[in-house]
Write a structure and sequence with these properties.
This protein is α/β, with parallel strands linked by helices. The protein is about 50% helix and about 20% strand. The chain has one domain: HUPs (Rossmann fold, 3-Layer(aba) Sandwich).
């Protein structure tokens, strides 16, 4: 493992900490990706538009992604305070009609990642069949190891 990627989840930071410790143990550079769903992006964009109207200015979409990156960076700084790991944060927006797994695979490819860490979803077999499962999709489509921690 030279360049792992961990999908940031602000509700379960255990995986972020574990990925950082493992990356530090093998002297790897960790990429932390902060994903925004289409709904999260729209909500943040609408809030930003209200601020922009009040300030009589405009902001582009990158400001929304930068805010998501900032949150992941602040959490990482806290979690990695005593971990000697080199790491970066990438922000990514999941497009309308795009699966989360596809976006993660794209980010992994763009960043030359060789291992993916992700929280899994607790779903029944029927739920997986109907709604899909991002961990399963990553395991089947990523060209490298995928570590999944049930969230």
């Amino acid at each position: 493992m030279d360049h792992p990627l961990v999908v940031y989840d602000d509700e379960n930071t255990d995986l972020l900490r574990e990925a950082g410790e493992l990356a530090a143990g093998v002297d790897a550079t960790l990429t932390v990706v902060s994903l925004m769903t289409p709904d999260e992006f729209r909500e943040a964009r609408e809030a930003l538009d209200v601020v922009a109207q009040e300030e009589h200015t405009s902001y582009d979409d990158s400001v929304v992604i930068d805010a998501a990156k900032r949150q992941a960076r602040e959490t990482g700084e806290e979690l990695f305070e005593d971990v000697d790991v080199e790491w970066t944060v990438v922000g990514a927006r999941i497009g309308d009609g795009e699966s989360e797994a596809d976006r993660i695979l794209e980010v992994a490819d763009q960043n030359d990642v060789d291992h993916v860490f992700i929280t899994g979803e607790k779903r029944s077999p029927t739920g997986k069949a109907v709604f899909g499962d991002r961990a399963q999709s990553l395991i089947l489509n990523f060209d490298g190891p995928v570590t999944s921690l049930l969230g």
